[in-house]
What we know:
homodimer; seven-stranded mixed sheet; alpha/beta; about 350 residues
Amino acid sequence: MINFTVGPVQSSDAVRAVGAEQVPYFRTAEFSKLMLENERLVKKFAHTTEDSRVVFMTCSGSGGMETAIMNCLTKQDKALVINGGSFGERFVELLTLHEIPFSEIKLEHGKALKPEHLDPYEGKGYTAFLLQKHETSTGVHFDIKLVSDFCKRNNCFLIVDTISTFLADPFDMADLDAGVMITGSQKALACPPGIAVIALAPSALKRIENNKCRCQYLDLKLALKNQERGQTPWTPAVGVLRQINVRLKEIDTAGGDKYEIERTAHLAQYFRDKLKEHNLPFEIISESLSNAVTPLHPKTQSAFEIFLKIKDEYGMWICPNGGDMKDTVFRVGHIGYLSEADYDKLIEAFLDLRKKGFI
Amino acid sequence: MINFTVGPVQSSDAVRAVGAEQVPYFRTAEFSKLMLENERLVKKFAHTTEDSRVVFMTCSGSGGMETAIMNCLTKQDKALVINGGSFGERFVELLTLHEIPFSEIKLEHGKALKPEHLDPYEGKGYTAFLLQKHETSTGVHFDIKLVSDFCKRNNCFLIVDTISTFLADPFDMADLDAGVMITGSQKALACPPGIAVIALAPSALKRIENNKCRCQYLDLKLALKNQERGQTPWTPAVGVLRQINVRLKEIDTAGGDKYEIERTAHLAQYFRDKLKEHNLPFEIISESLSNAVTPLHPKTQSAFEIFLKIKDEYGMWICPNGGDMKDTVFRVGHIGYLSEADYDKLIEAFLDLRKKGFI
């Protein structure tokens, strides 16, 4: 099977080789060293300030989103959140559950964020801003510079979900003055799922220090305290953390985040060019594309039927959408261990489906 | 390295082979089928009632403990908890954090639970009971029959942490009328860490239905709803779940939980006999042993120094203790992919340390 979804994605041979090893005991100096190296490399690739911190939580990316909210926001905040798809909707659900006062900027699926969307909220006392830098469900890459500038002007604490865009599109946490960056092990980090990675600027560390987290398992005070010595309060997904280590060093050796972003951008462009070249009956639905994924509306067949066909008859996974986008949108990912040759096979499958009159 | 800790433990070749594979996309009928098979086999080995359910949460065992408390208990409960070591202490912390009224039966490290410990709480209106069936930190295997009988007489909802004892010692959830059983992927399930397995009796399902969980990520209503079709609300540790599937089927083919428990009991007895045979300067500190681990107090050297020596000079991990037991207790585990020959090597190392005057 070739995997073009947006996670779990394909891992490199070196990462898979670690998966075959016995998982070592981890309350050791050896594992602590590895964890501190993981922290150092994530800080480097996220371009954090020197006094920022990184923790690794054994949970999904959504668990990471909730962790950020539970630890960094309080009922005294007044938050602004971009809701442009399933993951924006999840932020809304979480803010509601945790009783954080908020306003929601609801964007039509596929639409970009524009200055006029933010204008009404200028100078209105908002204290926090949450968004997906890349709304994975619709493939819209929001203008983070626009949001960052708003936050700087309005003194807003910025929480950025970069789950599917970290290492796929440029991100400079220090320059954007973001408080929190969240990503997951199974996106462009291209490791098995199980770990959420959370980078925390000093502004976040201060909020965490002054807050009481109502969930021990997701308590960042405990995670930060343990990570000082490269440890975790609870048994983490040790295997995945070792794979993350191999992967981060692989990227570092190849040229860092810049290299990985360029590689991903190249694959995305290669696929998009082929789509156009063959005039396939798919419409790109996003006004602002990330390198991570191409979201497509098939004009002649149900998106979910195409997903099933490609899986069952061609041995490849494209990424289906859920909910009300199930029949109208599928996505083709560009993160993970993929090559031009893989896309050639996918394009061939699409051409074959057209020849057969399926699309 | 040979791993005698109590988790992560050593995995079988078949489980490791899955670790080397690419992690597949999981929103598929194929993965759903695997998850439903996992549920069926855990129910079988835990001897649940037919109408019980099992969910798989991407978190540590401690995350599973907190999940049980957040979803099944409320401020209207009056809980009784056994605190006989680090994990009993964790239950106490969690009940405190979540403001569940409780009384604590504090047992000296190493001491068994006896009827007289429970007598004062008889007929006092307790509604819930929490305990470690096996307090992993001290290696004390509590008398679960005693607790179960108390719960039946007093109409108490029983939450059992079987994290390190599931598949190592007998457990019959239906017979004990337990409401919740919690275990983890990295104990006798002998897979990498990352998944907490939670079995829920109908009494638990009813409590969950009537409760509002204050954490979306750990919300069992969502987990149960998704598991109806073999799915999870958030991206789970797909790789570990596939390894659990291979492992559960391995156990099933070999003869089920009975076989695995006997195998573990045999290894534990083999090691304990050898200790005695060679008159090693270690004292077993538990009044009531589990098959999962042998907790030892070294009479002639710091436990932590022995751990380091065995790791650095003999290439084996025994299990160190933390906190105030750091220098006085180490543990030797019997769960995971271990053989008599492995124990022969450990005994040889101990004999060598004695010859050198280190112990």
